[in-house]
């Protein structure tokens, strides 16, 4: 987790990225380091005998990006898949048949994160070019460029009402933007290391953020005040955090190969999900709630893990990606999961 | 969802202290919050209506249709529709989804006030300048206007000499119809009755189904300027030109015989020393407080509490007379609009940062606490064991990450979200429109 290592991990060190692409931390974190050879089948025998497993199987592969996939997101209406990549572009695909729709081009460096507005018409993206951009997905036109971060913009999220965008950056701050005016409403001096994720609560009144400083913080959207801080004792960098679908819990991923579930009101960790490998990249963990409730996360060994929320046992492991799986997202209504990895591919999995 | 983590001390603040925002977009004449309180509609002197997004304090919609000052605004229950009444004799019902007019209703006189039925956005009641109040119903597509002829029936109960408030009530001319007009009309919380107030101080209660005046009561001898219900509907206020605001308990309107309805006066609020007139009145969100803005020279907002009726706070407004005041429906926040410039002033409570929130091991203590070291506090434990211990601490109880629970004190109803339009060619509001 040496942040300075981004300088000395040029693109040529791996066969996963095009060497002409500039080196940037999005790559260093999510898409860029050489393959880890699969060491051992970490979860021997799991998911084979279990009755209640999500039973997902590969459905299709979306191919087109020229560098690692940093994030994949289904739109709120379930019609679209948006993918962000270190190749500076965002691509849109139809969720039904995986048909390629368009490429959104404009960032001058790799794209680290994307977020859909609730009406599925607008997309926000955060990039290493320090900007957050807001796009109209119908026309592919740029609507707003939000400038203000002094370092790489690393994470972004839309408020449920679509009027605010929150962004986290390597400049260690969170900015809350008025999308309509295109101005920054508030800058929160949030963390003492890069902010790796921001996520709005279901009602938009709170924002959760996490950072490589090992902390997860909850913020009041209206006042900008910190409401709560959660720390795991071993202080490992937290690379990803989100609210549970009902907003009562937080799911965080940290670089000690653990995904954790927190009851933030009690300030207490309630579950830890382990078995995958996550030590280098900001791999994204999420919930899948259409077909039973599961915790899902990619792993640096190319696998995608499903855990049973209650028992913490691994319920299914999906294999297929070469190199780390950096992002996963579950379809809002159908039994469908998308995973994206350093191998530049997006795999779509559906229930058998 | 943030309520459970918010400092209980700041939540217990009952009325706002600090001027936090000044919204300067045109010359505002009236204000209304939607029920959730995330939008504020402002009617302008030039006839425009502006809907502010209260998350960003930016403009969510600009509605142009009126040509004369807007006199009243009313939100539908779900927050999707907004009714505006103006001195240009029009009432317009707006659909905030696209900012278009759903209905335009023309009257024969300037509009004093127009209010939507609390459960049906296709019914509204309107009070007109020098004309009878009217209930408008376009539920079936055609506009039907029903005159609420409340004045004539006041004669029958004019024998009732009992008056509220005024120390020396005018003697009534028995049987002689006084020339009076209805100044205000408002629905009860259920929408089954309409309360109207007249220029001679009569309160009339009208059945909104059959348009009959079922009860009349003389409250005072001068104009009734406002009637305002608390959010619960249990109490209502009457502001009249006799410089007194009267607080009443709402009678139980489910009783069959209207003559049994008890219209109890609870408190009178007035400034005995300065004999101030009150421009506008409003309840606080929980109904525990009443506020009023003062007429002319003193630019103040008075706040009384309703339990014992004492004055608790006078908010000084900056530089201009306050014409309309509104209390936020669920926050400790007051919005008011000035007469001269038409700025909107917002007073709110300012929550101090809780420093203990920034570090989970810290607690805020009032007194010094003697520190006692625990037996194993600084023991060095190998990582694996520590990790295992932490995992063992986790309870094996099931957690529910999906079901949405209601939290007390939170507005949990579905409320309409005005779509954010980001297209460049959208009409942007020009500040030079003011005045």
Structure description:
The complex is a heterodimer of chains A (352) and B (435). Chain A is mainly beta and 352 residues long. Chain A has one domain: 7 Propeller (Methylamine Dehydrogenase, Chain H). Helix content of chain A is 2%, strand content 47%. Chain A contains 1 helix and 28 strands. In chain A, a hairpin with a 5-residue loop joins β16 and β17. The longest helix of chain A is centred in the first third of the chain and has 7 residues. The N terminus of chain A is likely disordered. The C terminus of chain B is likely disordered.
Quick structural summary:
Chain A is mostly beta strands and about 350 residues long.
- SS-based structural class of chain A? mainly beta
* Order of SSEs of chain A: HEEEEEEEEEEEEEEEEEEEEEEEEEEEE
| Poorly predicted ranges of chain B | 153-177, 425-435
Q: Give the helix level of chain B as a range of percent.
A: under 10%
Structure characteristics:
heterodimer; A: mainly beta; 4-stranded antiparallel sheet; 1 helix; disordered N terminus; B: 435 residues; mainly beta; 3 helices; 28 strands; 38% strand; disordered C terminus
Furnish the topology, listing elements before pairings.
The complex is a heterodimer of chains A (352) and B (435).
Chain A lengths: L24 H7 L24 E8 L5 E6 L5 E6 L4 E5 L5 E5 L6 E6 L5 E6 L4 E5 L5 E5 L6 E6 L5 E6 L4 E5 L4 E6 L6 E6 L5 E6 L3 E6 L5 E6 L6 E6 L5 E6 L3 E6 L4 E7 L10 E4 L5 E5 L4 E6 L5 E6 L5 E6 L5 E6 L3 E7 L1
Antiparallel strand pairs in A: 1-28, 2-3, 3-4, 4-5, 6-7, 7-8, 8-9, 10-11, 11-12, 12-13, 14-15, 15-16, 16-17, 18-19, 19-20, 20-21, 22-23, 23-24, 24-25, 26-27, 27-28
Chain B lengths: L7 H4 L6 E6 L4 E6 L5 E6 L4 E5 L4 E6 L6 E6 L5 E6 L3 E6 L4 E7 L4 E6 L6 E6 L2 E7 L6 E4 L2 H5 L27 E6 L5 E6 L3 E6 L5 E6 L5 E6 L5 E6 L3 E6 L14 E6 L8 E6 L5 E6 L5 E6 L5 E6 L5 E6 L5 E6 L5 E5 L34 H11 L42
Antiparallel strand pairs in B: 1-28, 2-3, 3-4, 4-5, 6-7, 7-8, 8-9, 10-11, 11-12, 12-13, 14-15, 15-16, 16-17, 18-19, 19-20, 20-21, 22-23, 23-24, 24-25, 26-27, 27-28
